[in-house]
Amino acid sequence: MRKKRKYIIENTCVGMYLSDVHNEKIRIDQAVQRAFCSNNEFINNLVYSVVSNEIYIPNIILADENEDDKIIKSYAVDGGQRTVALGKFMYEGYRITKTIREPIIVYDKRKTDENGNVVRDDDGEIIWEEVEYDLRGKTYDDLPDELKESFYKCPLGLTIYQNTKPSETTDLVGIYNIQSGMNVSQKSLTYLGNFAEEVKRIKEDSDFLKDGTALTESDKKKGIWERVISECVMAVNHFENWKKDPKKMCDYLNTNATKNEYLKIEDYFNRLALYSDKLENKKVSDLFTSKDTLVWIKAFDNFTKLHISDDKFGEFLNVFVKDMMNKEVDGITWNELDADKHTKDTGIIQKKVEHLTYLLLDYLHIDTGDYTVEKNDVMETESNDVVTDKEENINVEEENTVDNDVLGFLKENISPDITEEDLKAYEEDLDVYSLDVDNNTLLLDKENRKSLLAMVAYSYQNDVSLDEWFVDFFKRNDSYLFDQKQNYESMKKDFEEFTQKGKNAA
After folding, report:
1. Looking at residue 393, what is its pLDDT?
2. Which of 48-52, 146-150, 223-227 has the lowest mean pLDDT?
3. Dihedral sign, Cα of residue 465, residue 157, residue 44, residue 48
4. Do residues 457 and 414 make contact, with C-beta atoms less than 8 angstroms apart?
5. Hey, where are the domains in the chain?
6. Is residue 397 over pLDDT 50?
7. For residues 37 and 188, is the Cβ–Cβ distance under 8 A?
8. Tens of pLDDT along 221-255?
9. CA proximity to 403, closest of 372, 360, 449
C-alpha cells in the first residue's frame, strides 16, 4: 500500500513566522532551493499586500524532517522567495522603491493634539482618524506603529508536511515549483536529490568557482554554478551518456553517479585554483566560462593520467592564452571551435577536448601517438550534434560580446533593468527549450530570436514557466511576424490564453 504524506495546516502571522526564520527554527536553504532571485517590484508589492492586509498571502509550505520524534530541520519548500523578500524588509533595512503597484496605505490612526497627546471624545473614548501613508522610500523602521503592527499581525497559513525524509523534501520542492519561474538550471537541480547537498557544499566552499573562473555572483543566484558542477561530473565520469538537457543530466546523475565522483571534481577544482586566480591571472580565469569549464575539466582529467606535476598544466594555461588560441589543429583554431553555437552538443565538446589535449601534449613535447583519449570518451554523436563553421576567423572576444540590439529590445519591451548577465541566462534557457521542438522550423530563425528571448525574459519577470506552452506553440505554428515587437506581443497573448485554458480545464 502506498504511503500517504501526512500534512497539517496551522495559522500564524507574518511576524511570528519571520521570527522563526530569523532564529533558524525554519530554514530556507534546502539543498535544491534556488537562491533569492526576485526583483524590487516583487518585494515592494508583497510588502504592500502584508501591510495593507487587503491581499491574501498564500500558505507557506514547510517540510519537517524528523528523527526519533524530534524535528531535526524544518524547511520552507514553497514560499522561500516571499520569505526572503519580507525578511529583507523587516530585518535588513530594505527601502521600498518607486516600482510599486500601489504605494498608498490607508489606515486608522489615533488622533493627537499639537502636543502629541491622544484626543478622546466626551465619553473618554479614543478618537480615530483615517490617514494616508506613502510607502515609497520607507523602511520597516520608518513605519508608524499602527502599520508595524499590521505587518506583524498579518495572517499567514502554514501547510506542514510531517516526518519527511531529505529525498521527500527535495521532491516537494520540485513539485511546488514546477509551475513557478525557476529557470532551467534551477529546476534541473530538483532532479538531483541524492547529491544536491554535495553540489551545494562544493558551490559554497570552492575558491575555484568564486575566484578562478569567469562565473559571476549573478550566475550563482541563477543556478549556473550548480549546473557547471554537474556538467563536470558528467563529462569526466559519464561522457558516453552525455545529456545536454540539464534536467535529463541531473536525473541521470541522481541514479548513476557516486559521491566519490563529486569529490573528484572538487579535487580538480582545488588543484586548478592555484593557477587561475582572476586577481593574478584574469586571462586564464576567463577560459573557465559557463560553457567551457566542463571542457577544461575534462582536458585536465586527461592530463592527470600523465602523472606529472600540476605545475605543467598551470604553465600550459598561461602559454595557451598567450600563443595558442589561434593555433590550428587539423585546420581549425580554438577561437573558431569556441564560436560554434552548438555549445553543449556531444560532438563539439569532444572536438574541444581533443583540441586542447593535442595542444597540451605538443607543449609537453609528448608524441601524440604515445597518448590517446580513452575509448569511452569517443562515441557516436547525437543526431543533432552537427558542427558547423558558419563564420571564419571569429575570435573569442567577438563570441562573448553581448548582442546590444537584442539587449536593447528586451530593455524596451520587458524591463529597463535587464542586464547582460540576464540575457546570457535567457539565451541558455532558450537553447534548452528548443531541444523539444522541431529544429527545422522557421520559428528558430535568427530573425525571430528577439521575440523568443523576450518570451523567456517575460517568464522570468512574471515568475511563470514556458515548458508546456513552448512545445505546444511550436506544434501549432511555423511562421512569425517580421516585426519582432508585434510577434512578441502575439506570442505573449497566445501564452496567456494557453495558461487560462489550462486553469479552466483544471
Report:
1. 36
2. 223-227
3. positive
4. yes
5. 7-100+141-167, 178-399, 404-505
6. no
7. no
8. 778 899 999 999 999 999 999 987 788 888 899 99
9. 449
pLDDT at 178: 55
Pick from 272, 256, 275, 250: nearest CA to 199? 250
15-22 long-range contacts, Cβ below 8 Å, gap at least 24? 15/90, 15/151, 15/152, 15/153, 15/154, 16/152, 17/60, 17/83, 17/156, 17/158, 18/83, 18/86, 18/87, 18/90, 18/91, 21/76, 21/83, 21/87, 22/87, 22/91
Phi, psi angle pair for 232, to nearest 5°? -65, -45
Condensed to tens digits (0 to 9), the pLDDT of residues 400-457 reads 445 788 999 999 999 888 888 778 778 878 887 887 788 788 899 889 999 999 999 8
CA 331 centroid distance within chain? 37
User: C-alpha cell of 85?
Assistant: 523578500
Residues forming a β-bridge with 7? 161
Report the distance separating Cα 101 and Cα 52, nearest Å.
Answer: 13
Flag whether pLDDT at 1 surpasses 50.
Answer: no
Q: Which fold does the domain 7-100+141-167 belong to in CATH?
A: 3.90.1530
272 contacts 300 by C-beta, under 8 angstroms: yes
Q: Is 293 left (phi over 0), alpha (psi -120 to 50) or beta?
A: alpha
pLDDT for 336 beyond 80 = yes
Residue 256 to residues 192, 195, 461, 463, Cα–Cα distance (Å): 11, 11, 35, 32
What is the number of other CB atoms lying within 10 angstroms of the CB of residue 72? 10
pLDDT tens digit string along 307-317? 999 999 999 99
Helices marked H in 61-144: 80-91
Q: Give the pLDDT confidence of 449-465 residue by residue, as tens digits.
A: 999 999 998 987 776 77
CB 452 within 8 A of CB 430: yes
45 closest CA partner among 85, 7, 1, 76: 85
pTM: 0.52
CA end-to-end span of the chain: 28
Q: At residue 383, what are phi and psi to the nearest 5 degrees?
A: -60, -25
Residue carrying C-alpha cell 519527511:
164
Q: How many Å apart are CA 31 and CA 11, to the nearest integer?
A: 26
d(CA 462, CA 130): 34
